Amino acid sequence: MNDLGASFKNLVGGELANYTEMNKLAKKEAVRRMKFDAAQQGADAVIAMRLNISTSGSTSGIGNSDNMLTATAYGTAIKFIED
């Protein structure tokens, strides 16, 4: 669905399935990258993980395509120590 169609659907109500799917994929990719980065640093796990979703861009009217979704995952990478 293009932004014009999404803007109309937003006015009348209902779920924006394409944007919902894009949101899910952005979250999944952010977590995947966080895990990869932690593993590259030798971590065994990530604790206290947070996920932040934000949008930015212009909201100047119907059909505007200047919006961007950003997903950021972060946490503390840890290494287990055996006693």
From TrEMBL:
It comes from the Bacteria. Pfam families: YbjQ_1 (PF01906). Transmembrane segments: none annotated. Coiled coil: none annotated. InterPro entries: UPF0145_dom_sf, UPF0145_YbjQ-like. PANTHER family: UPF0145 PROTEIN SCO3412 (PTHR34068:SF2), UPF0145 PROTEIN YBJQ (PTHR34068). Belongs to the UPF0145 family. This is Heavy metal-binding domain-containing protein. It comes from Limosilactobacillus pontis.
